[in-house]
């Protein structure tokens, strides 16, 4: 049983580093999202190692892209625009490539609309002054 737990822990660590690498690539590549991969990194490291989780949450990248969302369930306008632009580009490419699969295009379009609505109306926006607003109120 202990061997199985070790394998599971190593798997979480490996997944955490893969997500961290992809998230870090997303910082420089406009078509790769950063925040979802960093959220997955935090989750994987939390499941595997307190030391890795503490290290990751202390990095400048975590503080820049995730800290405000984790603490306040809020993001800056710049972060929201970056996320929505990147995901819209990726989904748009998928939409174009699925020309012969109309059902998949409809599903992708519905997911895209829900994604936009969620970020616009459910995620608080942090203004530059530090105060947050909630569009849904």
Automatic annotation (TrEMBL):
Keyword Magnesium applies: no
Statement: the UniProt record of this protein carries the keyword Transmembrane: yes
Keywords: Membrane, Transmembrane, Transmembrane helix
One cellular component (GO) term of this entry: plasma membrane
Pfam families noted in UniProt: DUF454
Transmembrane segments: 12-32, 81-98, 104-121
Protein name: DUF454 domain-containing protein
